[in-house]
Queue: 3 jobs
Job 1
Amino acid sequence: MSWSEIALLAVVVAGLALWLVWLSASRLDRLHRKVVASRLALQAQLDRRATTAVDLASSGLLDPASAVLVADAAFAVADQNVRPAEPSTTEAFSLTGLTADRERAESALSVTLRSVLADPDDVRGLRGSAPGQVLVDDLASAWYRAQLARRFHNEAVAQAQRARRPRVVRLLRLAGRAPLPRTVELDDQLPDDLDGH
C-alpha cells in the first residue's frame, strides 16, 4: 500500500467514525426531546385528573368528609405545580421527571380517590344523576389517560437510558450535560368500578 492509499483509507475511516458519532448524538437528542414531550404530556394528564377530582369534590354529590379528603388531596397536587420564581424553561425541559413531592401527592390522590370510590354502591349512586355520571366518566377518562401517559413516558425514559449506556456514548459525552432521564413512579391504580374505561 502506498502512502496516499493509507491516507485515503484513514480519511474514510475517520469520516465513517464521525458519521456514526453524529448519528448517535442525533438519536440521543431525539430521545431526550421525546422524554421531555412525554413528561409534559404526563403533567398535563395528571393536572387534568386533579382538576376533575376537585370538580367531583365540589359537586355536592360526595358526602362532606369524602369531599374534603378528595379536595385536600387534589389541592396538594396543585400546590406541587406552584414553583417559586425559577425559570420555566429549566423546569419544562428538565429530563429528571416529576419531583418526589409531586409523585407522593399524586399517589396520595390515587389512594384517596380509591378509598372514596371503593364501594360499588356509592359509585352507582354517583352515576345515578346526569352530573354525577359526567363527573365519574370524566374522572375515569382522565385517570386512564394519566396511566397511559405515564407508561409512554417511562418507555421513552427507558429508551433514552439504553441509548446512553454504551461506553462510546459516555466516553465522548454525547449526552452533554443533560441529566440521566428518570422514570415516574407513582400509584395510579384505577378503582375497580372505574376500571372499565
Job 2
Amino acid sequence: MSAFPTARSVRTTPEGLLWEPSERWVRGRKGDVTVVDSRHPVLVWEPDLPVPMYAFPREEVREDLLRPAKNPRTGTHTGSRIFYDLEVAGEVMANAAWTFPADDLAGHIAFEWFRRVGRGLDHWYEEEEEIFIHPRDPHKRVDALPSSRHVRVEIDGTVVADSRRPVLLFETGLPVRYYLPREDVRLELLVPTDLSTGCPYKGTAEYWSWRGDADVPANLVWSYPDPLPAVAAVTGLIAFYNEAVDITVDGRRLERPVTPFSRTLSTS
C-alpha cells in the first residue's frame, strides 16, 4: 500500500486542523536552491487562518538544510511540536519550517513563505507556474465577468467614477469588486502610492490614495497592470474598496461590507 494519501476529501484532526491531499507538483526554493520538490503535498488549514498552507513528506524535503530551531516560536501553528531553522548558502532563517502535532500529518514538514511573513522560502511553484503569498485554495473561486451594469463610486460625496462597462470580480468569501476602465475614473482626484501587494489569485497590485482632505483610508484604490491569466479581464482596470467608499450599482447604493480588509484600512 502506498505511504501517501490519495483520497480527495478534506479531513479533520483532533487539534482542529483541516487537511487534504493535493495532486499538484509543488516546489519551494530559497534563491537558486530547491528545498522542497514534492509530488505528494498536503494542503493544511489552521483554525485561525483563512488561507491554506502546504506540508510535505519528509522524503521530498531537503532535510540536510534543516537544523533544530535555536529559539522555537512557541504558540504558533496550532501547537506545532518541532521547529527548524533553515540554512542555505551560509544564511540561517530562523523558524522557517515546522511539523504539526496531528498524527494524521506525522512525517510531514511545512514551510513559511517569505512574501507572506517575511521569512522562509522565497519562490514557490505549482507545476511550472510561480505562485505567491500562499497556496491557492481549491475550494475558492475567482471569476472576472464583463458587465453592462451602471456603477458609480463616490468618496466623501464626490463622484470619482461612473461607468457602464465594469468588470465584476466574484471571489469566494469577499464582496463583489467593481473594476472600471480608467477613462471612467477621475484619476486627477487620486495620487499614486508606493504600496504594492501580491495575491495568489490575481497577481501584483498597484495603489492610489484620495487626494482630498476627507478622512478616508490611504490606498483605497488599486489596479492589476499585469494580472494572472485567470483574471486577465481586469488588466489595468481600477477598483475601489467597498468597505471605504460609496458604490451605487444600477441606482441602488450598496451597504459598506465588513471584511478582513476593514481593520487593515482603518489602520492604514
Job 3
Amino acid sequence: MKSTAISLMALAAALGAFAAAPAVAQPGVAQSSATRTAQAYHAPKNAFGQPDLEGVWTNATLTRLERDPKYGANLVMPSTDAQAVEKENSKFIAEANKPTDPKVKTTDLPYDCGRGFKGSDCGYNFAWTDPGTEVMAVAGQKRTSIIVEPANGQLPPLTPEGKKRLAARFQRSAFDGPEARSLGERCILSFGSAAGPPMLPLLYNNNYQIFQTRDAVTIVVEMVHDTRIIRLNTGHLPAKMKQWMGDSVGHWEGDTLVVETTNMRPEQGFRGAGGDTKVVERFTRIGPRQILYRFTVDDPEVYTAPFTGEVALNASKGPIYEYACHEGNYAMPGILAGARELEKQGRDPGAGPRDASGAPAAEGQ
C-alpha cells in the first residue's frame, strides 16, 4: 500500500475512535488469566534452543490505546459490548465503501467523516484501511484498552517539561518544508508508533514478520518499510548514538524475550516523549497462534510515571508485501506546492478547511 498524506492529529485521534458501554468485569481478571495461560503453554524451540517466535503476526484491533473512562479500572470487556463495537465497525465500513457520485464536489462531502478524520483528510478512502474487525482478545478475554498500567487505562499526566515539548511540536507550521511533515509522510519511519517501540496498531498495515538467529531477532514492520534488529546478550551503544527505533538489546528469560531499547531519536518521540525514553518489551508466546506483547515506557522528563500496555500479536497469513512509499508518492510535493500557491494568494495554508470560493467552510462541511 502506498503512502498518502494523513494529518498526524487525525491519525492519532483515529486510534481512540472506538467507544463502548460500561463493563462489569473486575479489575485484574484479564492480567491473571493471561499469566495463567502463559505459564500453562510452552512454545516450541527452534534450532538454537530458543522459544520459537518466528512467523507473520498482526496486532490489528478495534481496541483503543486508552480506555473509555466509562470502564473505570475494568480491563475486561463483556462479550455483549465487544459484539456491539464489532457490529458498529462493520456497519461503518459498509457505509464508507459505498461508491461516491463522481459529480459530487469535495465541498458537498461531510466535513466529519468519522474516526477522527475531518475536512481534507476525508479524501483518505476507508476502503484502503484495515484496522481490524475485532476487539483485542488476550487469552480469550476481550480488552477495554491496550494500556494496563496505570489501572485506569489512561496515559499518565505529562510533566511541565512534557507539556512544553508537546506544545512546541504542534506550534510549528506543518507547511514550511518537508522537515515539518510527519516521518510517515516523508517515508522515513512508520506512521504513529507502528515500528515502535512500542509497536502499536494503526489504521492499516498492522503486520509483522519475526526472524530469529542465535545472536539477533529481526522484526520486519509492514507499515512503511521498517526493520528492527534486536541484538541479543550484548551491551548498548554509546548514548550519543541516536537511532531510528532506538538501540534494542534483548535476552531470554525462560520463554520470554525481554528487550530494552534506549538511544531513540527525539524526532520519534512517543506522544511527547523525547530521546531519553527507555522502553522495555516482553514477547511471550502464550499459545500456538498468539504472542503476548507487553511494553513499559519510562521517560521521567516527559511523563509523571511509567506506563505499561499489552497487545495481542495473532498469527496471520503471509507474505508481507513491499510498502512502496516513495514510488508514486505525490502527497509531499502536492502539499508543499499547494501551500506555496495559497501563500501567493495571501492565504494561510494552515488556516483550516475552505470552500470552493476560498472562504472558511461552513460548520458541518
